Amino acid sequence: MKKQGLSGVEWSILNSLWENNEMTVKEVQGSIQDLQDKAYTTIQTYLERMVKYKYLKKRKRGSINFYYPVIDRESILKQETTSFLSKIFNGSVSNLAAFLLSTDNISKEDLKKLKSILAEEEKKHE
Amino acid sequence: MKKQGLSGVEWSILNSLWENNEMTVKEVQGSIQDLQDKAYTTIQTYLERMVKYKYLKKRKRGSINFYYPVIDRESILKQETTSFLSKIFNGSVSNLAAFLLSTDNISKEDLKKLKSILAEEEKKHE
DNA sequence: CTATATTTACTACAGGTGTAGTATTGCTAC
DNA sequence: GTAGCAATACTACACCTGTAGTAAATATAG
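Predict the joint structure of the above. Result:
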């Protein structure tokens, strides 16, 4: 079968690795709240599978494995966003925004930030 | 294990059913491009599993099964959107918008629509 | 009515995914 | 240098998911 999109945990792991460049199993576990109560080998399995699927590579320092990302954050972001938007909102952010507004699912702050981002964009293209 | 989010196909099926109230296997297959070249029983399996997971129910008319949705479109939209945004964009639409703008991944039309939706909202709250 | 086609109900199977156990290897503190 | 702890490598297992085959029931055309 084909690998699905990234799961929440895989995403957290990637975020940690993008920030820290390379990490051991233990460090990864330490950095992610949701993994705190999981078995050490569970995290190991995640990491090994992500290597298998070419999201990561590993390198040994001494006898310890260090994992590091070999995929680009921006391209994954784009891929996940595109697939989400096209699946649910016919590919359109404005549809998403319309939904959030009409159902009151956006915070005041976020709405404000959204407006200011767009205003900013406006300026740039004057 | 836990059911993942809705797959693309499941989403299409739900959309068809929300529009048509109830449909047979054949009708579902006919209504979705991506299922055209799949075996009839593949669609049947999708539908039966969606019944098992309580997205749908079925009712017999004569000896034919008709499937219909028992979940609310809006609540699923909300659930999927929330989980996507929190997974990838820290729960914030403005982060998503910022990403799309900075990487030039939004069409002119969509951007225009987005602005007009926000302007509209502005008016409503005067 | 009977041969054919449709539909259902059930089964199957490979690969994904969350979760973790076990055996072995290697490090560390006496 | 050895007992114990930590890390690696490997294996396991149940449920998910895409895909579909098969047998039995039912409808349909002639």
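The two ends of chain B are 49 Å apart (CA to CA).
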